[in-house]
Amino acid sequence: MTLPFPDLPDEALIHAMTERREEALQELHRRYARLLFALGRRMLHQHEDVESCVQDAFFNAWRHAGRFDPARASAKTWLVSIAHHRFLQELRDRPDTPLELEDWDAPTRSPDPTDRLMAQRAVDGLEPHHRELVELAYYRGFTHSELAILTGLPVGTVKSRLRSALDRMRAALTRAPGA
Questions:
Q1: What is the rounded distance in angstroms from the CA atom of residue 173 to the CA atom of residue 179?
Q2: How far apart are CA 98 and CA 101, in angstroms?
Q3: What is the pLDDT averaged over residues 83-101?
Q4: pLDDT at 1
Q5: Lowest mean pLDDT among 88-92, 97-101, 145-149
Q6: Which end of the chain is more exposed for a tag (fewer CB within 10 A), N or C?
Q7: Which of 37, 3, 35, 34 is nearest to 17 (CA)?
């Protein structure tokens, strides 16, 4: 029996991955690789590092599919979280050397413009104090403790503002277009 993987919901694909169905992983990759690549590109700036980390993220999802709990997060959120953690690890593992000017100016492949625009609109729609925390935490990789030091806010305030910002972004992303 062949499952019509393009028609299955994401959560069913993850369940199929627990049964070692490679087609399920391929379908999730087809659906979300561009999104993860766009996030990685914003965080890491170096194409080879982004490709490697996205591949690692899908490999980790494959290995740990049995840990997925749909009550805690959607499949998309789970995959983005895995990739985000991998990108942060890559940032932390890098030596503290500045990029050459050529690296900053090098032409890059464009990620999916729709995902990038939607994410940027959600970030841009935040109040400045929320936007700053989101950009520092998710694009620059600062921890809650580091953000507290950078902003002079208590760690609890940093955490609550980030949670509030993410809730607002989620609401903005789930609203119907034109609503």
A1: 11
A2: 9
A3: 78
A4: 38
A5: 97-101
A6: N
A7: 3
CA distance linking residue 111 with residue 174, whole number of Å: 21
CA angle 136, 140, 144 (to 5 degrees): 55
For 109, half-sphere exposure in the C-beta direction (CA atoms, 13 angstrom radius) is 12
**What pLDDT score does 28 carry?**
94
Report in angstroms the alpha-carbon separations of 79 from 6, 26, 75, 138, 151. 17, 13, 6, 15, 29
Full DSSP string of 98-163 = PPPHHHHHS------HHHHHHHHHHHHTS-HHHHHHHIIIIIS---HHHHHHHHT--HHHHHHHHH
**Residue 94 dihedral angles phi and psi, to the nearest 5°:** -75, 145
How far is the C-alpha of 150 from the C-alpha of 162, rounded, in Å? 14
Give residue 14's pLDDT band: very low, low, confident or very high (50, 70, 90): very high
Cα four-point dihedral sign 82, 57, 11, 28: positive
